[in-house]
Amino acid sequence: MHALPHDHTGARIKRLRLERHLTQQALADLSQVSYSTVTKVEQGKLPASPHLVARFARALRVEVATIIGQPYAAELRADDLDVLLQPIREALDVFDLGADPEIRPRPLQLLHNDAESMLAAVRAGEIKQVATQLPGLLLEATTAAHETDTTEGWLLLASTYRTAYDVASKLGFGDLATIALARMDWAAQRGSNAVVGAMGRYMRALTYLRAGQYRTGDRLVKVGLDTLAQAEESRERDILTGQLHLGAAVMAGRAQDRDAAEGHLAEADRIASGTGEAVKVHWLAFGPTNVAVHRVSVLAELDEYGAATDAGAGLVIPREYPVSRQSHHYAELARAQMWTGQLDEAFGNLLRARKAAPQQAKYHPTVRETYAGLEAAKRRLPDSFLSYGSWLGT
Predict the structure, then answer these.
(1) Which pLDDT does position 7 carry in this prediction?
(2) Over the stretch 176-235, which tens digit does the pLDDT of each residue have?
(3) Dihedral of the CA atoms 52, 209, 17, 300 (nearest 10)?
(4) How many CA atoms lie within 13 A of 65 on its CB side?
(5) How many CB atoms lie within 10 A of CB 234?
(6) In the chain, N or C: fewer CB atoms in 10 Å?
(7) Is residue 27 packed enough to be buried (19+ CB in 10 Å), middle (13-18) or exposed (0-12)?
(8) Hey, CA dihedral for 55, 59, 60, 65, is it positive or negative?
(9) What's the rounded Cα separation, in Å, for the pair 33 and 27?
């Protein structure tokens, strides 16, 4: 078994701690994490869960991304993905300049079809393809929205901004994802659509979830629910309401608030029983399957890894469920299995995460942290385990 990568999460925590002239005991006190946990995480003997990483980030006064190493610059360069982000950033920056006189946009219906195709492609794991095509569509949709000044045009633009958020967040560029969401909210307000506005709040809440700022994320969910209350009753509104409850459940789980997490899960389950599977409604994949998948995540966030693995073992994923969500689920299940000592099963799910959506899995922090944890377990795993690490770039 080869050694852990030099710059694993624990090593970064140690380096940041030493830069701040803190002892391990001081970091334990500041983060309210046990001393033994701090030492084991720094040594790579214990993987850092999202909850732990958030505590360390607050104690060290850095962003969560700094600790987990995002964005993974070397791998992005190797995959020729780094050069695709700047054109997206530039296209997001001209949102308020009006129509570009050098652009002749196609009819809104054709642009809408392209926007929907990109949303589907992201959920099919085709991140590079979308990142390549997105800047042109962003610029064209921006001009079309300003020229037509219609609800349809502004909501089309909001959709393209959402895709920019999807790409940026999956590749680990939190700052760019935040900008994209601000643009989405700006366009949604001009489109006067409460549902799209609430969806923006939901996605913004997810950025705070990843950053470990659970209180702000929870406030955003509540604002999103209040916004939805202004919309007319519809299946669409119910679906987004349910999805907001799922996001809130994970938020509460990561904050170790069991009662709130279970309450949000129960409400999402109640709503899903009425909506049924709704994979393509705003491409949120809401429905009974998504509730079950989130239940696994919530149990893991509550450190109930045995219950999480049991819940995941009996879960059957429908064929139409987006592969991006499948990949995320397999990564979450692998993490829970690693913590319960089911190392072979955990690696099997890392392989499933890669097979389902390879571009997403490669840049997923849970995949990387779980791989590092398996490496540190000092147990013989198949030769393909080492090749998996080479693929990750570790």
Answers:
(1) 66
(2) 999 999 999 999 999 988 888 888 889 999 888 888 888 899 999 999 999 898 888 999
(3) 10
(4) 16
(5) 10
(6) N
(7) buried
(8) positive
(9) 8
